[in-house]
Design brief:
The chain has helices spanning 12-18, 23-28, 36-57, 63-73, 76-85, 96-100, 107-125, 127-143, 154-163, 205-222, and strands at residues 171-180, 183-192, 195-202. The protein has 231 residues and is an alpha+beta fold.
């Protein structure tokens, strides 16, 4: 039974191919078709659809912030989450070895399959069908992109903002490190005068601190975090 999608395939062989992991061919030692070519196509279609949407939705922003916004929408983590929400893992066609090693939950396999499904929809129904599917999938995420991350040095800007009101500089603390040793996820908090302003996460301590600073800036500018009074 195919996964429940908001798209009905005319050629279900395309969907089956999109869900076929390369390990099947590797294990058999034969030239069996798998989803890497569809993944390549789906990646391009996804990029085009989201780039066009960002271009239209944020006319006042240049290439830099638009590229950052697209990167927030499209990365291994977010695509794997999309795949999980569609239940693709249960329908992946894997080799015995990949199955035994947890391939159905592996982020890379899920993200690749998700892009391959997009490529399959494009081939089966054309660009309009793929565009409709993608925009429906990412509709909620676009609302989270306001305002776009336009600040190039959030830690520096936060320090400047706070030190204009107080001699104390912001301090950063690593709250936790999760994930595998080869793929850690850092969570950091930024404090000012013993008050936690915000938290952020990233693949490095520096990235997590930067995200925390950006979150603190957004809160301060929106009035949801109280800045220290001017002295």
């Amino acid at each position: 039974m195919p996964p429940p999608l908001a798209y009905q395939f005319r050629d279900e062989n395309l969907l089956r191919l999109a869900l076929t992991h390369p390990s099947v061919a590797h294990e058999s030692g034969t030239a069996l078709a798998h989803n890497q070519r569809l993944e390549f196509l789906g990646d391009a279609v996804l990029g085009l659809v989201l780039t066009q949407k960002l271009y239209e939705q944020f006319p006042g922003f240049d290439e830099g912030p638009l590229t950052k916004a697209r990167a927030k929408l499209v990365n291994r983590k977010t695509l794997a989450e999309r795949a999980r929400s569609l239940g693709l893992g249960a329908h992946l066609i894997l080799s015995r070895g990949e199955e035994a090693s947890g391939g159905r939950e592996r982020a890379s396999a899920l993200a690749d399959a998700y892009e391959a499904v997009l490529g399959a929809i494009f081939l089966d129904g054309g660009f309009a069908a793929a565009q409709e599917f993608i925009l429906s999938e990412f509709a909620g995420a676009f609302g989270e992109l306001t305002p776009l991350p336009t600040i190039e040095n959030p830690k520096g800007e936060l320090q400047e903002l706070l030190q204009a009101r107080s001699p104390s500089a912001p301090e950063y603390q690593t709250v936790q490190v999760s994930g595998a040793d080869h793929d850690p996820l850092f969570e950091c908090a930024v404090h000012h005068e013993c008050v936690e302003l915000a938290r952020g996460s990233g693949k490095s301590k520096k990235a997590a601190e930067s995200e925390a600073a950006l979150a603190a800036l957004n809160k301060l500018k929106n009035g949801s975090t109280t800045a220290p009074p001017e002295t």
